[in-house]
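ESCALATION

Customer reports they have been waiting on this structure for their group meeting. Please prioritize. Original submission:
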Amino acid sequence: MKLGLNLILLSAVIATALSATLLEPGARRPPNILVILADDLGIGDVGCYGNDTVRTPNLDRLAAGGVKLTHHLAAAAVCTPSRAALMTGRYPSRYGLTSDKRMEVPIIPHTSSNVALPLDEVTLATALRAANYTTAIVGKWHLGMHCSLFGVSCPGPLLYGFQTFYGIPVSLFYQFGESHPFWKFPISDTKYQALVATWLLCVVSVFLGRKRFSWNLSTFILLLVLTDAIFFVVWFFATHVGPRKGTFWGVSSWLHVKANSLIMRQDKVVESPIKLEGLSQRLAEESRLFLKAHAKDDAPFFLFHSLAHVHTPMFTAPHMKGVSKHGRYGDNVEEMDESIGVLLDSLKEFGLEDNTIVYFTSDHGAAISSKDSRGQRIGGHNGLFKGGKLQGSSEGGIRVVGIYRWPRHLPAGRVVNTPTSLLDLLPTVLELAQLPPVQELVPHAANKELDGRSIADLLLEGDKTPPRERIMIHHCAQDIRAIRLTRGNHVYKMHLGKVKWHKGSSQCGWGPTAQCLCYGDKYHEDISHKPELYDLSFDPYEDFPISPLSDEYKEIVSYLQQYLKEWRASVYYPPSPMSVLKQSMWRPFYQPICWSC
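Update from on-call: job pushed to the front of the queue and completed.
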């Protein structure tokens, strides 16, 4: 007993000594981390990247006080795989969180879907939790919710290192901005004609059965009710469930809104459907309250503020309507910037500014083809880069805004032109915070090879001459569509496939279903037998391919083809659950419901 008490006292003394060492004047406290992620923001939509007609004063001051990355790249041109790469520092094809060619849009479509980021993948939140950070996510998640039976609990990000969650489990879809009818019975449709005929036959059979078998009244009524109930269930599934024209990922627009237009707090639904007007301000206030609550904590924090803007549907609070020169999309960009201002002002208000690393980016480029039902353009601008969202390796789909700020540590106003990636966030933050590598922080990460690399040296010292050689792979689903090589003063990009754009443009039409996809004969041309090669250092907009007859072309293409051969031989891509219907489909018995909404 005495020995036990002595051990307890000794432990207390050691803990007190450690605490005193950590908290004494001059002792180093790890910096806080604030990651702000925009949705579908184009690199040409922001003032500090050259736009002089959309007002983004808060992003501009963030860039003026930090480091602006001009050659910053998403790992995918669509939400789910890009966000997975941001969180893990690894290509999503390594763990199957992207589609194969059987599914046109590689995202998680439903809150109740069985598809999710594998639980053994290590996220930035997991790593920082291991380093004693307080972690929170506010806003869009879209990496899988792991709902239990009857939707009793949908923990989602709480399983990936985040301690608190308030926000959107999947995404905002354009259907959320409109009303959709529940009752639909187009009698001109032969399917519904057959349904009516079958119902009438059943009802007549019940009447004849009563006459033939002398059923009592209660039996007769029960059979009629049962007939109508079966008829309703068949009608419901014929109208609202099933992969066919007019449905979205297997459900009607009405059911899509009911199933996925949700706000969750922790693992429970607290708002359904989402009240779009004012959503941006509610999310910003949630993050402001988090910053206020943890401003005086001994432990540092990691806050992931995942913006709802500027994804469709376009929505704004009353005071932001009509404020821009670019219609509803411009209003959305300026409202997004307002939210960023709330976060930056909160850091200053609560004395957190100097010891908080802020990183801002977008999950991919703008959806340049988007139009609303009134014909107004609601897609963003990717500058002079070709292509946009969903277009695989097209530069406009993956070239994004990237800004790091850490006052008194990172130089203000620096511009870095060396290629960098969203994949770099995890190792970069750990190095800047002087924390151990992720493989040391999280033991089961030992076999997780990172594809991102720390760019702390670039942020601290600027562009090096020449920069370190680096190769980045650009995927379309699980296929490799392009590869980028940084070597000396050159940035080469070799295309193995091309999107079939409309002549004179870099898109395939207008509207929510007119996006250019990066595969399929309708949209894509395979040129792997004769790749196109560009030097982006001198031809950033890919106007002039290097001649296949030149020695430069032969050397670089040969080098990159050999690299890909070795990559494919050594890196395994598991099957994609997104393309398996029973994995990605809406699961009614796992659907979370807000009983108080």
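Sent to customer with the following note: The longest strand covers residues 479-487.
Escalation resolved.
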